[in-house]
Specification:
This protein has 174 residues and is mostly helical. 44% of the residues lie in helices and 0% in strands. The protein has seven helices and no strands. α3 packs across α4.
Amino acid sequence: MMKFSKDWPKAEVIPLTQNYRSTKNILAAANSVIRHNRGRNEKELWTENAEGAKISISETGTERDEATFVADAIQRSKRTGRGYGQHAVLCRTNAQSRVIEEAFLAMRIPHVLIGGQRFYDRKEIKDMIAYMRLTLNQADNVSLNRVINVPTRGIGAGTVGKIAAEADASGRSM
């Protein structure tokens, strides 16, 4: 966008500056931060919405402390009558969502992850958990079936079927 006007000098640039969701306080803070960007296209975000709650800043020691802080704040808000669906947590990176998910699970806060995949639903995490379960319980056929060919070892469905049939016939685990 910085070079757009130079590359297309005859084009009319129409900045979209009205925000329909955020409060005036949020946009004032955003404008204040954006104003410090070097070489930016000038614009001022605005809204017809209410002033909204004042912004607060909190400092935490670790990512786990931060996640606990967020979950506690949601629980406090819930006790004052706000529903869980009235909260949103925005993360700069997908990696940040894991500790927040864990805090929410620990505090039984229902949540939906948008724009990413839940940490424990990722294939590589499920595979690693299956490997760990197998180290603790070598009779765990479900975990073995999950990782018997991860990484690829050339063990196909036919071979797995023969192993399962032999295990069933002998009354043992795979």
